[in-house]
Amino acid sequence: MKTMTPPRWLFALALLALGAACASTGPREGLDASQLPPDVRDDYALFARRCSKCHSLARPLNSGIDDDARWTDYVTRMRRQPGSGITQQDTGPILRFLHYYSLEQLRAKRARAMANDRAASKPPTPPAEAAPERTADR
Amino acid sequence: MRRFALAAAVAGILLCGLLGTWQARAIERNFAGSAQLDYFLVPAELKNNATPRSTFDGFTSEVALKLAVDVSDRLSANVKVCYGCHGFELPMAYFDYRVADELNFRVGRFSPSFGAFNVRHDPANHATSSKPLPYDMGRMLRWQDWNLGVIPSPFPDNGLEIGGTHWFADTAQLDYAAYAVSGFKGDTNAVDLDWSQSFSFQQTGYLVDNNARPAWGGRAALTFRAGEANDFTVGASFMYGTYDPTNSFAYTIGGADFAARIGRTQIRAEYLLRRQSFATTLQLKEPVASDAVQTFDKHGYYLEIERSMTDTIALVGRVDGLYRQGNVVVTSTLDPKAAIIRYTGGATYAVTSGWRLKASGELWAFSNDAAWGFRDGHPAYDQLELGLHLAVVGTF
Predict the structure, then answer these.
(1) H helices of chain B, where?
(2) CATH for the stretch A28-114
(3) Residue A13 host element (H or E)
(4) CA of B102: which chain A residue's CA is closest?
């Protein structure tokens, strides 16, 4: 039987890492808050704090839900989870952010669809060999 | 053949539910899932190919698909199918009838409320590839010698649970649950529980109880909010049941947990103890009277600190362990006092929203005949092992 005596520098390193970790800031797996409109940032911050306690923010953000009624059901279900830390008062700001996020997702979806439509209706570009040589500029 | 038929039936139910999303908008459905592919390298296993494998090294995958349906404001249903090392599993197939936030009736197949890790058991919801040792389901080294941890998570069972949640002035949340379920299973002449009887479609009749006496238990937890970004949770859990067909032998499991969220740092700690009685018909290492009922205690614990460093990187550190105290069969590699202490350091990297890489290293210290794995105040070991995990996990 052998015993392990952890070197003191290991404790110092662990404390240093913990201190550095506690000093750093930044969201996680979510959205870049600086890119959000100022009036949405507080709502997003609350959403990120509450919803990342038990799971990745990707779960709600990638759920594909874009309907306010479904978001209400979703958030209500989460609020009732043991230890969720989500109060009735929290649901208002969280739903406000999810409403904004859904609209943004729908806008982006429409923009992509329109871009695809434009690309599909554009006449084919002529082959590169057919383009005239641009020697006159020299 | 039978297990494939069952798996196909469950997959069919999920598919029907999914397709029904476009056909019946009045009923709200939410489809979610996760998948983790983990590569577990154990250098000691590489060095000695003659040694029988004692762990699931190499690639393993865990896949879960879940459908939640809100039938009405009060009635909802959940179905979840998992595929992992144990084959197909049905960890959720239940209805919730909610009278109020404070009173909910859950009926069907579900994981009874025990411990704090239960709600994070999905690989997408914890930062390490492996679960804490008290809740291990097979990624631990020497899992056969140890017969896993204290209680696997998830541990789906058939039964009824009454629970609820109540807020006190937006500063404290009380959660409670009480349940009666089939309970764990084992043979009359066994020293320990036989998890395989409860785990998978591969076992005939795994959904059927082996005795008529339900296991029962409960949980209570209190969460305090301290400012906007901090909260603390303390909880306690309990479970009691008999596991053999004649109800001669019993297990009692208790647990206490603490969690703190301080800004972007999460600290979690749990302690579990299973005390179990067993028959003395087998030859044991320590001599006992032939008619005596033996007991053993299995302790499990973990302390975990997780911190998101940037928008993509999180670090996690964990110390966890098991300590078994009590007689064992003569063929066991364990002594009447046996311990594991594991040290884990890891990181996760969010490749994109919904995709994460997980990397972690584990140092395992195995010891026999050292209480709690300590000697003279220092961690003791007979053998050290190293394990390295690299995983990718996706979620939606």
Answers:
(1) 2-20, 43-47, 143-146, 196-199
(2) 1.10.760.10
(3) helix A8-23
(4) A80
